[in-house]
Design goal:
The complex is a heterodimer of chains A (about 260) and B (about 290). Chain A is α/β, with parallel strands linked by helices. Chain A has two domains: about 180 residues, P-loop containing nucleotide triphosphate hydrolases (Rossmann fold), CATH 3.40.50; about 70 residues. Chain A contains ten helices and ten strands. Chain B is mostly helical and about 290 residues long. In chain B, helix 4 runs antiparallel to helix 5. Classes of the chains: A alpha/beta (about 260), B mainly alpha (about 290). At the A-B interface, strand 6 and helix 3 of A face helix 8 and helix 9 of B. Bound molecules: adenosine-5'-diphosphate and magnesium ion.
Chain lengths: ~260, ~290
């Protein structure tokens, strides 16, 4: 799998007397096989716009977007999306929500339940197959969303602040869960977050974005998720001097952006 | 903490202000309730009290002879009348046939309105073409009282069953269409995007996301619609009807048979209420997730 963004720009047209918004300007980015790319930046810097482009919900104003050499034209099952919230179907139970993608693709019932059950287990939701999703906690709902995205065996997993609505403890648990799943399934991931610590901990590559116009200003290669997967406890990873140093550096960049904006 | 509200109309009331002020403030709730939720709390007992009070006042004013029976017959008269109409019928037709004929009229119009109105409303919500075409005619006729176009129905469709059912149909149709149409907007954009990202077609998104999430609003619209249907029943049975509860009420009123009028009103109310209870039950079974996600 190789996703390539070539000089991508997005301009939202003027509306309601507001001027046009240059949401993204000349974005160049490559996501390779099994890479975990994290996008970080102040709100309004175009992260969701970038994700919508990759998902195929939005076409670029200019530039090219290719997946394995073929231009992306519209959404497809090779790229699965995990949303922040409001994306589960409350009239379906956990198992049917997880199996939803397969149902859309016309997979027979027995087969799709087999796959869904495997992912329900992988996400630690065993025993909740028949529960209505609206009765689950936020953390469990998010795991259902991730399981659902994984059922169709996508090449690339797109996540727009998937943990943003969770409390701190649940969030750290979910970070570790996602890393373990990423490690086991060898998917490529594009992950948006507000949290610097989360970005550093999870990514193999970090892109820092800046608003007006939305663009990538910095890019870092990160070792920390591999350290965690190699057996180092998450707290130890996050407390290591290299982690703290990089965290401060990135925070400085982001604060500078915010000050420039204010 | 001061007892005096510092602003608002209550501060200008003078002597009664502290009591009024206390009433105007929300009090802490009991455990199990949520602070500040508008209108929470059970109403079952109060409803029972309200009904009993109504019956008592009704009985009192008639028993004391404060109003003439011609205007307000006593509750017992209504019951006696019901029994006698039940036994001998009204204008030669058994009571239950009146009830049955009206019920069939209202429900066939209701079913027809749902079968046509729900798909049309969904289509209007989904497609600007359909919305553009059907919005003007529906919005045009919707506020017109059915009595106003009843003569047209009769001129066009005759005095038979067609114009009666059509009149009721029209009154149910508009609210059902509007409900289904606005129900289309209930699905979140994330739910829709999720379906598309699995490669769903537009039809699959409609079938698997839009329609289920519109269901609560459609059910509410159906409840409102059948209500309109019952209110139109009497108008529909005004012309050339010889059977039906609406006809019974109308002809009884021409002969000043007030007990039959009131009894007819009660029969309509009871059938409508029973059906509404059924709809609420269906709602609880079908969409227990309503408003919870
Ligand atoms: N549909 C839209 N129409 C017009 N402007 C938009 C639209 N979506 C986003 N924007 C603008 O584009 C910029 C980037 O938005 P977004 O991609 O949502 O940023 P982020 O996800 O980083 O917070 C913002 O200034 C936002 O106001
Ligand atoms: Mg965003």
């Amino acid at each position: 799998m190789r996703l390539k963004l070539d000089n991508l720009s997005v301009v939202y047209p003027a509306s309601d007397g507001r001027p046009p918004v240059a949401a993204l300007s000349e974005i160049n980015l490559v996501i390779e096989d099994a890479e975990f790319v994290v996008a970080l930046g102040a709100s309004g810097c175009g992260k969701s716009t970038l994700l919508n482009l990759i998902a195929g919900f939005l076409s670029p104003t200019s530039g090219q977007l290719t997946l394995d050499g073929r231009p992306v034209s519209g959404p497809g099952a090779d790229r699965a999306v995990v949303f922040q919230k409001h994306a589960l179907l409350p009239w379906l139970n956990v198992l049917d929500n997880v199996a939803f993608g397969l149902q859309i693709q016309g997979v027979a019932k027995a087969e799709r339940y087999a796959t869904a059950n495997r992912l329900v287990g992988l996400l630690g939701l065993d025993g909740f197959q028949k529960s209505p999703v609206y009765k689950l906690s936020g953390g469990m709902q998010q795991r259902v969303g991730i399981a659902r995205a994984l059922t169709c065996d996508p090449k690339l997993l797109l996540m727009d602040e998937p943990l943003g609505a969770l409390d701190a403890l649940t969030r750290e648990k979910a970070q570790e869960l996602i890393l373990n799943i990423w490690h086991e399934t060898h998917k490529s991931v594009f992950f948006i977050t507000h949290s610097v610590e989360e970005a550093l901990f999870m990514g193999t590559k970090l892109i820092v974005m800046s608003p007006r116009p939305g663009r990538i200003t910095h890019s870092f290669d990160l070792p920390f998720s591999r350290q965690f997967l190699g057996g180092m406890p998450a707290r130890a990873v996050k407390a290591s001097p290299e982690f703290i140093k990089l965290r401060e550096d990135v925070l400085k960049i982001i604060f500078a952006d915010e000050e420039a904006a204010a | 903490m001061t007892d005096k509200p510092t602003s608002g109309p209550a501060s200008r009331v003078g002597a009664g202000e502290s009591r009024l002020g206390r009433l105007a403030r929300a009090r802490p709730t009991k455990p199990g309730e949520i602070y500040g939720v508008p209108g929470q709390g059970s109403t079952l007992w109060l409803s029972a009290v309200s009904i009993l009070l109504f019956l008592f006042v009704w009985w009192l004013v008639t028993a004391m002879g404060w109003v003439k029976p011609l205007f307000v017959p006593s509750p017992m008269t209504i019951v006696t009348k019901l029994i006698s109409v039940w036994n001998v019928g009204f204008t030669g037709t058994p009571f239950l046939v009146h009830v049955e004929i009206s019920t069939v009229r209202v429900f066939s119009a209701f079913l027809l309105a749902c079968v046509v109105g729900i798909p049309l409303g969904l289509a209007m919500g989904m497609s600007p073409l359909m919305r553009g075409l059907f919005d003007p005619p529906i919005e045009f006729y919707r506020p017109i009282p059915p009595l106003a176009y009843l003569p047209l129905m009769i001129i066009w469709f005759g005095i038979g069953e067609t114009s009666k059912i059509l009149l009721i149909f029209l009154s149910v149709f508009a609210p059902v269409v509007l409900g289904a149409r606005s129900g289309v907007k209930s699905a979140s954009i994330e739910q829709i995007h999720a379906a598309y990202s699995f490669g769903a077609t537009r039809w699959q998104v409609l079938r698997h996301v839009i329609m289920p999430s519109a269901l609560p609003e459609i059910l509410t619209a159906m409840r409102i619609g059948i209500g309109f249907g019952w209110t139109t029943l009497v108008a529909a049975e005004m012309v050339a009807a010889t059977q039906g509860i609406g006809y019974m009420v109308l002809s009884a009123s021409q002969f000043l048979q007030t007990p039959v009028v009131i009894m007819g009103i009660f029969v309509i109310a009871i059938i409508a209420f029973a059906f509404d209870l059924l709809m609420r039950f269906i709602e609880r079974r079908l969409v227990p997730w309503k408003g919870r996600m």
